[in-house]
Amino acid sequence: MAKKFYITTPIYYPSASPHLGHAYCTTLTDIIARGKRMRGFETFFLTGTDEHGEKIQKNAAAKGVTPQEFVDEIAERFKNLWKAMKISNDDFIRTTEPRHEQTVQKIFSKMVELDDIYLSSYTGWYCVHEESYWTETQVGEEHLCPECGRPVEKKDEPAYFYRCEKHVDNLLKYYDENPIFITPESRKNEMINTFIKPGLQDLCVSRTSFTWGIPVKEKEGHVVYVWLDALTNYITALGYLQDDDSRFQTFWQDPDCEIVHVIGADINRFHTIYWPMFLDSLGLRKPNRVFVHGLMMMKDGKMSKSKGNTISAYPLIERYGVDAVRYYLASEITFGQDGRFTPEDFVTRINSDLANNVGNLLNRTISMISKYYGGEIPAYPGRVNDNDGELEELTEKTIRSYEVLNDDLKVTEAYAEVMVLADRANKYIEENAPWALAKDPEKAANLASVMNHLARTIFVVGKLLSPILVEKSEALFNQLGLPEEKRTYENVHDIHLVDGLNVNKGEPLFPRLDIEAEVKEIVAMMAAPKEKAAA
Ligand code: MSP
Fold first, then answer.
1. Tens of pLDDT along the chain (535 residues)?
2. Atom from ligand 1 closest to the CA of residue 263
3. If exposure means fewest CB atoms within 10 Å of the residue's CB, which of 127, 180, 197, 237 is most exposed?
């Protein structure tokens, strides 16, 4: 039976247009999902939008539309961006859908019945932007939100609370027994030291000061706290507590299904403290891993809607193609660390890895096969040249470490290994100097071996990169003359795969970019991200 894999992105606030920071998270998750599917895992990939809350209500009012109209429009923008980025999600959950709202009400009622949620009243400092309450000490004398720095409001309202202390021991036990639950590990220590050790206060899980939320059935005037609403999307989308819960059975209830949430560091606390506790209340298993990626920064700090320093993915896709943008996102910032977007790095990365390394390898090989063999790839003749064995072994080693690194969610590292293989293949050309071999009839077997080894290595490189290069990998296979049915992952181990294929000379996969000119182009895109995004 196929192994199972369930992966999710955070569900995004449809409060303004998505930018490259959002695309970063979804693209990396997509690359993982595609990689697993390619390798035969039964995979479910979920993304969506988090549509309730005071902030959305206020933004909609400011625009003179209803909150539903407001989120309908922006949710569409997210869906369109994912289409443009070639995101392969299996479902898109919106928290205003009946399937979600009804289930959240059931979940809330269940927690009330269990006495995990109780009615009391709340006085505290509230930040509308972060949708979070803070204590007197946290907001300081100036009464500013410790997260975003905006002024907070004093609030006093009847509210439901979630009993954290009841589940904290189980949470810590889960951390202990599952050392990779929170990855990277530094993110776990942060949770324990900053939030759990000082003592977790009960979490306020209902609101009465606004109406744009899921009504609490138990008490009129209350809506469910947006984070309790949002986090449960990971199970409501699978059909939890619904008539058809087959996906829930397959991807949540089966202990052999690996469950991974990919999130940004700013929402770690919700995913690694409250979410496992909520699941504990419901008697459900917890995810295997919460992978906390870093933030994409700009020169002046975090790329964010509120700062207005965003860049949209669209103009980049339009000019450089979706694969170049996907590759940049996966490779430039080590997955798990913070990184900074700069136009120079963007152009240099595409030139060095895609144009000069992979693209060049393909071009040279196809040209030589056309020139020396009229386009037909010679059959594998065994290991003829001194370095044939080395290239074959590196190929197998790359496949093995690619799988291990991917399973460990070391996405950037996994694809860097593939680049090492492509680079080695380029050097293999220099070492064997096929142009000299071609002049010597006694070296016919040597030349045939070089061409066959190169073509086969190119297939492996293309296949391993295909979760990122969703379009160009197909173009690469076309140039190799590889029939559809031979493009499957199992064939990465087939040493005879390319024997006798007829190559097709084509356009370069990635034309080399003029750094200076392209940097100028991107700087212009950064200056006008809002207009472009809206378009
Ligand atoms: N709605 C909540 C998540 C609920 S999940 C149950 C939310 N939405 S968000 O739209 O503000 O952010 C969603 C994700 O996008 C977060 O993981 C956040 O880290 C990520 N990013 C937003 N800006 C980003 C960057 N500049 N760089 C990388 N990721 C970024 O939080």
1. 679 999 999 999 998 889 999 999 999 999 999 999 999 999 999 999 999 999 999 999 999 999 999 999 999 999 999 999 999 999 999 999 999 999 999 999 999 999 999 999 988 898 988 878 888 888 999 999 988 899 999 988 899 999 999 999 999 999 999 999 999 999 999 999 999 999 999 999 999 989 999 999 999 999 999 999 999 999 999 999 999 999 999 999 999 999 999 999 999 999 999 999 999 999 999 999 999 999 888 887 877 767 777 889 999 999 999 999 999 999 999 998 999 999 999 999 999 999 999 999 999 999 999 999 999 999 999 999 999 999 999 999 999 999 999 999 999 999 999 999 999 999 999 999 999 999 999 999 999 999 999 999 999 999 999 999 999 999 999 999 999 999 999 999 999 999 999 999 999 999 999 999 999 999 998 876 444 444 4
2. 17
3. 197
The identity of residue 74, as a single letter, is I
Q: Do residue 161 and residue 71 come from a single domain? A: yes
Tell me which of 7, 9, 13 to substitute to probe ligand 1's pocket, judged by most ligand atoms within 8 Å of the beta carbon. Answer: 13
Long-range (24+ apart) CB contacts under 8 A made by 143-148 are 147/266, 148/306
Domain with 348, as residue range(s), is 343-493
Q: From the alpha carbon of 50, which atom of ligand 1 is closest?
A: 1
Residue nearest to atom 8 of ligand 1 (CA): 12
Nearest atom (ligand 1) to Cα of 303: 26
- Ligand 1 atom at shortest distance from the alpha carbon of 15: 10
CA dist., res. 142 & res. 150, Å (int):
10
> If you take atom 2 of ligand 1, which residue's CA is the nearest one?
12
Classify strands 4-12 and 258-264 as parallel, antiparallel or unpaired: parallel
Kindly report the protein residue whose alpha carbon is nearest to atom 6 of ligand 1. 231
* Position in ligand 1 atom list of the atom nearest CA 271: 6
In this structure, the residue with its CA closest to atom 7 of ligand 1 is 12
Pocket test for ligand 1, best of 295, 298, 305, 340 (most atoms within 8 A of CB): 295
Q: Which residue has the tokens 């290595």?
A: 457
Does residue 252 lie in a domain region? yes
Across the beta sheet with 258-264, the strand order is 91-94, 42-49, 4-12, 258-264, 289-293, 182-183
Q: How far apart are CA 291 and CA 336, in angstroms?
A: 8
9 and 73 within one domain = yes
Q: From ligand 1's centre to the CA of 238, what distance in Å?
A: 22
Q: Which helix (H) or strand (E) holds 283?
A: none
Q: Which residues line ligand 1 (CB under 6 A)?
A: 10-13, 21-22, 24-25, 50, 230-231, 233, 263-264, 266-267, 295-296, 302-304
Q: Which of 263, 293, 323 marks a domain boundary?
A: 293
Name 293's Cβ contacts closer than 8 Å, sequence gap at least 6.
24, 25, 28, 262, 263, 264, 265, 335, 336
**Nearest atom within ligand 1 for CA of residue 10:** 5
Q: Ligand 1 mean position to 29 CA, how many Å? A: 13
Q: How many domains does the chain have?
A: 2
Read off the DSSP letter of residue 493.
Answer: G
